[in-house]
Amino acid sequence: MSTVTTDVSITPLRQRMQHDMMMRGLGQHTQQDYIRHARRFAAFLERPPDTATAEDIRRFQLYQHERGVSATTINGAVSALRFLFAATLGRRDLARSLVIIRYRRKLPDVLSVEEAARLLEAAAGIKYKAALGVAYGAGLRVSEVAHLKVDDIDSTRMLIRVEQGKGRKDRNAMLSPQLLELLRMWWREGKRRSVMLPHGWLFPGRSYTDPISTRQLHRAVQEAAEVAGIRKRVSPHTLRHSFATHLLEQDVDICVIQVLLGHSKLDTTALYTKVSTRTIHAVTGPLDRLMALMAAKAPPS
């Protein structure tokens, strides 16, 4: 298990926090987020976080609200500081004084099947078509797409192996024949360019020894959406949302979709029932039933 990168100015407290995160199996991205939030808190205090009081925490959270910091960022800071105070400093009393913001989750933007086809067609080159094809065709998160390796594609079992996804969980994702053909087209092109190493990254970055960055994938999606004339706010995660919604509209069992997405809770997957147009259209409205009843009772003219 790797820890976040350290530097020469690392403090004993930060090193202890990193060791605590490593021992508890927190993912590298989570470690980086927690350290970043702890640094911001220390900068606000202008002294080490282990000297903080409950009043300091209250002032920090009020400061975040007054500065218009998003609920997501505030809650991320709460998670990081709760870990710092409870796990590293043994100050559960301070951890309990941190307040989570309750907010309504927004419905995700979803592409229609036609829009998804236009987006993939507009992607710049076979490498990005294949990468975005994985995001849409298998429902992978952008970080999971970026960190796929050639050996993760199992054409015999028609599966994509996702290692250490969100929550450091492994899972299998679906591999359709069309997606496999798209990946083979990219593999042949990558071999021709000499950027596809044996057992290497499926989507190499600018240096073929490194994976493509999530920033590159975000930019590729946004550029493809502009070329395709799609006005919705589109990101790689939009393709994952669209994957789940389109499966639901094809009457795939929601528990199967949960497994394919790697969701721990069914409630998370159930969000897609709120954006599925087929689910909405399948319901007969009360006014329609009333009008049908009235028409049946009306005397013939």
From TrEMBL:
Keyword DNA-binding in record: yes
InterPro entries in UniProt: CB, DNA_brk_join_enz, Integrase-like_cat_sf, Integrase_catalytic, Integrase_recombinase_N, Integrase_SAM-like_N, Tyrosine_recombinase_XerCD
GO molecular function: DNA binding
PROSITE patterns, per database record: CB (PS51900), TYR_RECOMBINASE (PS51898)
Lineage, broadest ranks: Bacteria, Pseudomonadati, Pseudomonadota, Alphaproteobacteria, Sphingomonadales
Pfam families: Phage_int_SAM_4 (PF13495), Phage_integrase (PF00589)
Protein name: Integrase
Keywords assigned by UniProt, alphabetized: DNA integration, DNA recombination, DNA-binding
PANTHER family for the chain: PHAGE INTEGRASE-RELATED, PROPHAGE INTEGRASE INTD-RELATED
Tyr recombinase domain boundaries: 106-285
Core-binding (CB) domain segment(s): 8-89
GO BP terms: DNA integration; DNA recombination
Similarity-based family: Belongs to the 'phage' integrase family.
Domain of life: Bacteria
Organism listed in the record: Sphingopyxis witflariensis
